[in-house]
Amino acid sequence: xxxxxxxxxxxxxxxxxxxxxxxxxxxxxxxxxxxxxxxxxxxxxxxxxxxxxxxxxxxxxxxxxxxxxxxxxxxxxxxxxxxxxxxxxxxxxxxxxxxxxxxxxxxxxxxxxxxxxxxxxxxxxxxxxxxxxxxxxxxxxxxxxxxxxxxxxxxxxxxxxxxxxxxxxxxxxxxxxxxxxxxxxxxxxxxxxxxxxxxxxxxxxxxxxxxxxxxxxxxxxxxxxxxxxxxxxxxxxxxxxxxxxxxxxxxxxxxxxxxxxxxxxxxxxxxxxxxxxxxxxxxxxxxxxxxxxxxxxxxxxxxxxxxxxxxxxxxxxxxxxxxxxxxxxxxxxxxxxxxxxxxxxxxxxxxxxxxxxxxxxxxxxxxxxxxxxxxxxxxxxxxxxxxxxxxxxxxxxxxxxxxxxxxxxxxxxxxxxxxxxxxxxxxxxxxxxxxxxxxxxxxxxxxxxxxxxxxxxxxxxxxxxxxxxxxxxxxxxxxxxxxxxxxxxxxxxxxxxxxxxxxxxxxxxxxxxxxxxx
Length: 518
Fold this sequence. Notes:
8 strands, disordered N terminus
């Protein structure tokens, strides 16, 4: 990344520094203010200088010496001064910026500001063409502030939203949509808070009510505990939107998506189809329906349609990680590898993308690389140490094929499944990868049918690791390629019958991939 344009090689006047957007905030160095929507905060001069320096080196490491050189003119003033300035930047990141960027400490080296979209330098926005709105950036925008050399649509959209000055409710809705695309628990909660504020200032805004219902309905996809959002809140927000606008697509989709479909597969598919019959381009309903298709074993069909969907939403992290699985199911492994790597470059340490890459590697026999990924703590999302230990032990056992190691790792897996749903989902994947099929069926009995000696977690708990979209007892992991041995076992079809899956296949007239001719 070219950072030679910086004028912070000495402690120059902040009045000379250009303004920019990073994450969810607009930064004005001249006035030493940062702004998010209608909220403004004034910060200390040195904190502003450090923020600018880190933003210019976005997603790259800036050494402590470089920061002293840029922000203190090369005068060494002691580590405490730099530490205080870094702490100030972090307060901005977790406060007014709502976690849309973070500052990572690189031990014994320096710091790195991590952001999905690099800084947008306002001085580099060219004059608009005659046919464009006055403040909308034109097609000749500089590529200086892009990630991986390409201008991000999200950043350009953020610039327009910040400077076209829409009414408060519209701005809050637009900001919430950006937050929802980030696909993290924190960003989803930020989206909900923004939308709750929007309907407060504009109670007759049907778009805000509908999107609020959608955010409530989708929050399970982001590891929020089960009781965080009640069905009543989804229904109330959706009904309010429909009272104001009977055709509100988000409201109708929220009512269809929120109802758990475990054991009631056909009704769920009909709900999705009813929404799409009226609103065929509604992305979140398309996404939910494609995930549902994986839950009933129609992996390849889902994968083909997923590729079309993701082309419409390239900056939505919650869509992107699912494409890795889709390509795996279609046996397009090289493409899946590229999508996973690109996703982790766009959303570093994103749990959904990290696990997608892990299961792709392990499920395609590249266990040495899967082990190396788990061992790389710097790029690993924050996972509980017991889960990290179980992942490592199980993958090493699978690689060694040593019976004693597999038995020991299987006991470790089964010992953790009562703690969280995440451990159940990971456990099912690991047991299949190790070939521990008896234990996999014991876990399935516990999780799906609540029988046998094993106790499996059924509900989310605060702080447990991310498991995308469980929709209440997830079945997708039963149909992945690494589960082939379990699918071929004579115990599998009786299990499918007991959970109501065979009834769905019969009534729908479409069976799962593993029962279809090759």
